[in-house]
Amino acid sequence: MSKVNANDSNTFAGLRVAAFEARMAGPLAGLIRKQGGQPVEAPALREVPLGGNPVIDDFTDRLLAGGFDVVVFETGVGVRYLAGAIESRISRDAWLAALAGVQVVARGPKPASALRELKVRIDLQVPEPNTWRETLAVLDAHLPVEGKRVVVQEYGQPSVELMDGLQQRGAIVTSLPVYRWALPEDLGPVRRAIAEICDGAIGAVLFTSAQQVVHVLQVAADDGREADLRSALASRAVVGSIGPTTSECLRAHGLPVDVEPEHPKMGPLVAAVAAGWRGVGKAAESRPSE
């Protein structure tokens, strides 16, 4: 394996970079390569649609009956899973006609893109970094929710802060779970990546969601290497976080955040870590020998 090239100061220059992204693992690996890194793909989660979900059936019935005022879509994959589940019962035209009668909020570009694929009107789009804080702020500024019936499409787990914030503002809130997060069926790649991080063979790690943090620590603990992993992330491997929510999770679990990009997207994350890993002062020796 190639060593880091000290003369290439604005790229990974051969550094081995672990990425825990699943759905976009290939594109993320490509971005790492473009920045001169050696990607180590280690998907740390999978999205499992909630089949036969009575909550979705109830949402559909109430939507058709005019039972909601605002729908907040949290994720693009959630929009697509929801559409698929609804359209197993009724036509797309029927439920989209009902959706046209409510205010539609998209938490950032991914749900917005999925909604546009369906030709859904978007009334509000939450600005970066697209957290529950920005969601509440944009609603306060443009669509006060007091007394309104608000549905929140979950993103793998309940958004407790958002739900609490809406209820505190007087909204009548309904949670809409569409899918759940689970560990990958094949844990081999993430286990190998954890072992290599612990052994100093990986110089940087990229977390692109908070749930990846939880799962990586869970797998490390199951393998008896949690303490080793924590030590390596604290002292040897540069930790890149895609944005505030993931950074909050890392810090809540006692892990460092060495680099966070200005914009919470994969491209800016890779570019920021590639440009800044040397300045962190951790990864210079964290690479395998040739």
TrEMBL record:
InterPro entries: 4pyrrol_syn_uPrphyn_synt_sf (IPR036108), 4pyrrol_synth_uPrphyn_synth (IPR003754), UROS/Hem4 (IPR039793). Residues 28-270 form the Tetrapyrrole biosynthesis uroporphyrinogen III synthase domain. CDD domains: HemD. One of its GO terms (molecular function) is uroporphyrinogen-III synthase activity. One of its GO terms (biological process) is uroporphyrinogen III biosynthetic process. This is Tetrapyrrole biosynthesis uroporphyrinogen III synthase domain-containing protein. It comes from Paludisphaera borealis. The lineage of its organism: Bacteria, Pseudomonadati, Planctomycetota, Planctomycetia, Isosphaerales.
